[in-house]
Amino acid sequence: MRIAVASFSHETCTFCPKPTTVEDFEFGGVPRGQAVLDEARGIPSYINGFIKVADEEPDVELVGILAASRSRGGSSGSWLTKECFDKYSNGIAQGVRDAGDIDGVLLALHGAMAATGVPRPEAEVVRRVRAAVGPDVPIMVTLDLHANEDHELTDAADGVFILKTYPHVDSEEIGMIAARCMVETIRGGFRPVQAIRKPGIITPSVFQGTGFPPAREIMERAREWERKERDIYCVSVAFGFAYADVPDVGATVVVVANGDRELAERVAQDMSDYIWGLREPFAGKRLPKTEEGVSRAITAARAGRTPVVIADHSDRTGDSTHILKELMGQDASNFCVISIADEGAIEEIGAKAGVGDTVTQRVGGYADCWSGSPVEVRGKVEFLGDCEYTVTGPMSRGASMRLGRVAVLGLGDNSHVVITPHLFQLLDDAIFPVIGLDLESLDIIAIKSRVHFRAFYNDVAGEIIEVDAPGLGPADLTQHDYKNKPRDIYPIGEKWRK
């Protein structure tokens, strides 16, 4: 039993200014052939889930094709160029053709990709693979919880399986579910049928954490259906990615059942109705703005609830200066802003100073109108060099993080600003000793993240404060001028804004 494995994954913020290119993917490295499997083994991921199932089955051979899943800047990249999309989607399809006899294809995709001239990229990837393998070879797809998808994907694929956790700590589990379904389908013991629904709701990422209601209750209802009905194999809910201006934006329900399409349709409708009933609490929360959020963080730090994590969830380009400016304006101390994305500032620091020197430098505030304005800081260069470390926290444990050249400036009063070349999302504490900082000495950590950081910092932070600073990923979705969204989607469709 030979099963091809490939990945093409990108979470595209279409409101960001810079298109995503081939160079952005090649910068992070695109494994091909056996390297697809070798580089994934042992690291929690969909593909490692595929590998675990194959290791259990003596008659299963995985065939690595291509894995384009590490793009420079991550979700700070806007629309994929047509060249970029074609290179990797066609590369997967051709790789499958070149692999010889293939019994199935496992695709680790994302679901929130947006590509120029391609309305539904993931469905198109599957269609191109389908053209390569023919109608009878099963294709199973794994997706991120932030996926935007509709029936075009389920029409093309035999099974679609979506993460149930945010922070995403179940990617390996979902990979195993998809792989087991594939193996049983090839053996003839499973006949996958699917049902799909679009509840008609769009929600900001920051509201989608599955540790809190109503997201927690939605996922528990999905698990309850899986426990209750023997022929229901997997009930998936994608909450969607609101910052992609695409036709299928918003929540999606996909049910995979064994042969019983009527049951799949009934469960999918139940889940869709349940989500619709929770639309107001799901889409209508309020978060503190910058000044209020920073003030609350300083108060919490003075009360000893340290470290206080300030999560700037809306900065999608990484160069926003609103939190840094407010921390300085409110005379905070013992803080670290990690990070400000400014490759130019790093180059300027390197050209005029070395570690131990004091510099005056303008940082951030350049990418778009929501980034704020550059902030002039004066501080000692505490670190300047390439930064690479291994993730030790629950998210992507064992993965190598290669950030490129990084600068750290000490501002006095044990306060620091970390400057990275691109948007950086803090997942654990592994970076701190590498760049010479002591997490335990800090009262406040200001980061650029929505929910993923919670997988580690829920158990570490004394308090977490999500701040709705200006940015391209706001909680208030009315900030954006959508051109392609469904007209009736709640709460920003024309029907709801009258």
What is the general shape?
A: globular
Oligomeric assembly: single chain
**How many β-strands, per DSSP?**
18
Low-confidence stretches: none
User: Could you give the order of strands across the largest sheet?
Assistant: 13-14-15-16-12-17-11-18
Structure report:
- This protein has an eight-stranded mixed beta sheet with strand order 13-14-15-16-12-17-11-18, covered by helices on one side. Strands 3-1-5-6-7 form a five-stranded parallel beta sheet, sandwiched between helices. Strands 8-10-9 form a three-stranded antiparallel beta sheet.
- Helix 8 packs antiparallel against helix 9 (261-277).
- By secondary structure, it is an alpha/beta fold.
- It is built from 16 helices and 18 strands.
- Helices cover 32% and strands 23% of the residues.
- The model has no long low-confidence stretch (mean pLDDT 96).
- The protein has helices at residues 22-28, 34-40, 46-56, 82-98, 121-133, 151-156, 171-187, 215-228, 261-277, 279-283, 290-302, 322-329, 343-352, 431-434, 454-457, 494-497; strands at 2-8, 19-20, 61-68, 78-80, 104-108, 139-143, 159-162, 192-197, 232-238, 252-258, 308-312, 335-341, 358-363, 375-390, 400-412, 415-420, 444-447, 463-467.
